[in-house]
């Protein structure tokens, strides 16, 4: 059982179990400044333009930031306050939710939370089933006292943001059914939230908060406490290397903004029109970072395939059809590695 990082200790050095092999460490050079993560105004008066911006950001990064999204400031503040308070609880109260079973909800763990990890990542995480409320409400942690009320209000609000984004994405892709991504089995799975906490790290060059990966679901909505740490990888153009604009870009949202990224399923159902946003978390020596990632996902039995109208006549299908349950099994075994995961689902003719 791994001792949580949020145990009250002040770390003077990075414990050996968290030191990554040199080739996996974050580079000391600054992230690519050739591009910035787009900011999309969901309150604008030109929905067609907003839809175009979402699709353009989806093609380049799989990431964008949204403002005027309709989630009340007090709802966001209450959720962040409750999340940060959870990690200040005594260690034994947090560890009451500890498990290495990735299917258990709620579940508290350090790093990825697998048995016998060779190298640990600099993260504590509380994973919570959120929606449907009647399915999960009775399982939410009782401490801190305000967590349940904050979680319900915040989840309802960000789920609405996610569905709105998916409707705009369908419009931006020119689909006749603008509700294709928003409704039905594609978004009928539960909303699950990772409440991540990265304590201040004495040497951010030696470790990562989380390894590079894409999310397995359809779309993710994220809020953080304003401490920088999330980085997204820009899609490389032909002939570009990582140092030529294809590297990591800081995601540094404006105050009050939410970060949205597409997951693997959005890349599959659009036949690669938009990409799953590859990202990682770096650590900070200055302050602890807390982030809340809400995942909107398909029902487990949903058969994932390109949306009607997204594939042009004669165009190759990039991915074979599969159930979301099959995808999750492969994703978990591969620990989210983008190339390893996609290799199992690419169409040989694609």
Automatic annotation (TrEMBL):
Region (Disordered): 1-34
Pfam families named in the record: 2OG-FeII_Oxy (PF03171), DIOX_N (PF14226)
GO molecular function per UniProt: flavanone 3-dioxygenase activity; L-ascorbic acid binding; metal ion binding
Residue span(s) of domain Fe2OG dioxygenase: 189-298
Keyword entries, A-Z: Dioxygenase, Flavonoid biosynthesis, Iron, Metal-binding, Oxidoreductase, Vitamin C
Gene Ontology biological process terms, A to Z: flavonoid biosynthetic process
E.C. no: 1.14.11.9
PROSITE patterns linked: FE2OG_OXY
Family of the protein in this entry: Belongs to the iron/ascorbate-dependent oxidoreductase family.
Protein name: flavanone 3-dioxygenase
Organism field: Zea mays
Organism classification: Eukaryota, Viridiplantae, Streptophyta, Embryophyta, Tracheophyta
Gene expressing this chain: LOC100382073
């Amino acid at each position: 059982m791994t001792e949580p990082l949020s145990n009250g200790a002040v770390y003077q050095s990075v414990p050996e179990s968290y030191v990554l092999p040199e080739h996996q460490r974050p580079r000391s050079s600054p992230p690519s400044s050739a591009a910035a993560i787009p900011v999309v105004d969901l309150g604008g008066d030109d929905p067609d333009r907003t839809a175009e911006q979402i699709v353009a950001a989806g093609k380049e990064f799989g990431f964008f930031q949204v403002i005027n999204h309709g989630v009340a400031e007090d709802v966001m503040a209450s959720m962040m306050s409750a999340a940060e308070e959870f990690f200040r609880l005594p260690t034994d109260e947090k560890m009451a939710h500890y498990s290495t079973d990735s299917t258990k909800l709620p579940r508290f763990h350090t790093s990825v939370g697998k048995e016998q990890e060779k190298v640990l990542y600099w993260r504590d995480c509380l994973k919570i089933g959120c929606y449907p409320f009647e399915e999960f409400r009775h399982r939410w942690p009782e401490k801190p006292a305000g967590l349940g009320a904050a979680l319900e209000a915040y989840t309802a609000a960000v789920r609405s943001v996610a569905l709105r984004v998916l409707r705009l994405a369908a419009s931006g892709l020119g689909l006749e059914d603008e509700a294709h991504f928003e409704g039905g089995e594609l978004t009928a799975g539960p909303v699950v939230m990772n409440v991540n906490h990265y304590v201040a790290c004495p040497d951010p060059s030696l470790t990562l908060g989380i390894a590079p990966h894409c999310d397995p679901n359809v779309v993710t909505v994220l809020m953080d406490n304003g401490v920088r740490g999330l980085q997204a990888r820009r899609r490389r153009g032909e002939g570009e290397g990582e140092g030529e604009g294809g590297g990591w870009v800081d995601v540094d949202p404006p105050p009050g903004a939410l970060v949205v990224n597409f997951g693997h399923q959005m890349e599959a159902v659009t036949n690669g029109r938009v990409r799953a946003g590859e990202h990682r978390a770096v650590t900070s020596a200055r302050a602890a970072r807390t982030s809340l990632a809400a995942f909107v996902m398909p029902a487990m039995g949903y058969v994932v395939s390109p949306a009607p109208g997204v594939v042009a006549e004669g165009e190759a299908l990039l991915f074979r059809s599969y159930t979301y349950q099959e995808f999750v099994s492969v994703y978990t075994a591969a620990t989210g590695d983008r190339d390893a995961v996609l290799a199992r689902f690419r169409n040989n003719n694609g």
